[in-house]
Write a structure and sequence with these properties.
about 250 residues, 5 helices, binds biotin
Length: about 250
């Protein structure tokens, strides 16, 4: 990555940018920095290649040298961080690449139904570490249901421009008040039936809305209304048809 072509913002100033050619995980590096007393809000750790990247629920996140945008940044813990981050990614993809992306609640960003970006939020001491893995210039992806900016637009994209744009959009979304209204506009679940994998098993139902705390609200198969916060849902699948107990179904 050409470090000189990444712009800072008032929170993410360039003196707090750390670039690495190769790292096990930008997320782990950010954690170490906080533990050492160096890392504070505004630090951004970027790697051209990450060989032990982590995803949500202990999944592996692999990336190839120079093709993905791989970074972690440190912020204060404020409400709705996961929604603010997801919204900032979709807005960046729209503004910078002309792509209409959707938020597959809670933390996946999809274009034409295929995953283009994953987000991992963790805490260390009293700070949040937000890890973002965006597929940018890949022409072939190992995962079946994945895509990249280049695949969607047909042209190579600048990782530096996308990172600069994301940081400035995220900074303005940190203090935006109507965040949930904006998030709802990009949701991929509108008018859909969903299947939510939780720690206690699978719950299916009709998507109703997102609540003001970022929770997904559904009408379950048994007719009750239930809400799940981002951390409570391991995976969420869209279903293409209403579910009636005992009927066949298809995943959307
Ligand atoms: C997911 O979809 O499960 C989240 C994936 C998050 C991957 C990013 S890449 C940068 C940062 N470093 C990591 O080790 N993970 C996150």
């Amino acid at each position: 990555m050409d470090v000189d072509r990444v712009y800072g913002s008032s929170l993410f100033t360039k003196d707090k940018f750390l670039f690495y050619e190769r790292l096990p995980s930008t997320q782990d590096r950010a954690k170490e920095l906080i533990k050492n007393g160096v890392g504070r809000p505004g630090y951004v750790i970027v790697a051209d290649e990450q060989y032990r990247g982590r995803g949500r629920f202990r999944r592996v996140w692999s990336s190839r040298m120079g093709e993905s945008l791989i970074f972690s940044f440190i912020t204060e813990k404020i409400p709705l961080l996961s929604m603010r981050t997801a919204l900032s990614v979709t807005e960046t993809l729209e503004e910078e690449c002309g792509l209409r992306a959707e938020i597959e609640w809670p933390n996946d960003i999809v274009v034409n139904g295929r995953k283009i970006c994953g987000i991992l939020i963790e805490t260390e001491r009293n700070l949040a570490i937000i890890g973002v893995g965006m597929n940018i210039n890949e022409t072939v992806l190992l995962l079946e249901n994945a895509t990249s900016v280049r695949i969607e637009t047909g042209i190579p994209a600048s990782r530096e421009a996308i990172l600069s744009s994301f940081l400035s959009i995220f900074e303005s979304n940190l203090t935006r008040e109507n965040i949930m209204d904006c998030v709802r506009e990009y949701l991929s679940f509108i008018d859909r039936y969903v299947e939510i994998e939780t720690e206690n098993g699978i719950v299916r139902g009709e998507f109703i809305n997102l609540g003001e705390d970022g929770e997904i609200i559904i009408r379950t198969e048994s007719g009750t209304i239930a809400g799940f916060l981002p951390g409570e849902a391991e995976r969420v699948h869209k279903l293409s048809a209403p579910l009636l107990a005992g009927t066949d179904r298809q995943r959307g």
